[in-house]
Input
Amino acid sequence: MSEWPRLWILTPTASEAILGGFGAQTQENWVAGVYFFPPTLRTAIVVIHQLPRTPETLWLRLLGRGRVQSRAIDELEALPVNDPLRSMTLELLYNLQRNLQLTQEPDRDEEDRELIMRLAPLYQQDREQAVQEGRQEEGVAMILRQLKRRLGSLPTHLEESIRQLSIEQLENLGEALLDFENEGDLSNWLIQLSN
Output
């Protein structure tokens, strides 16, 4: 029976009376806010507003309401732009939002609209960052191919220096490398760039 699936009910709030009516109780080794029904029912309720503020509960707290959701959005905004948790969460929320638009557009309440309005710029920023990183990676690969063709194999420290360049710097290097005759020319160009 322990291998049977469990039904998970997510709710922004739940009163003690409701939880008690179902016989739902907390269990050892589970975070606050998770209540289990009697074993034969194979069901648990996750009361979102009772969840601890941890990275592991961020996604669920974003599905909460009011202050809980607002704080979770603030935490998401505070994550570094290149944080995988931020990117993954924004992608999941964007997909959820698109699905909600398809099913409930006329019935959307003010809190749902506010969530979408707050998350849209974050998602857009995340997408732009991904595009920028993709462009930078492509630029590095192209410049390294050109340099290797022109100068032969490059030392690791020079390759690493090139990988750290911005897109604009890579474009400048792409023009400058046409005049390089040896590895020293590349080293001098990189030294001048850092001055």
Remarks:
- The mean pLDDT is 86.
- The radius of gyration is 26 Å.
- The helical segments are 16-21, 58-62, 66-78, 84-104, 110-151, 156-163, 167-176, 183-194.
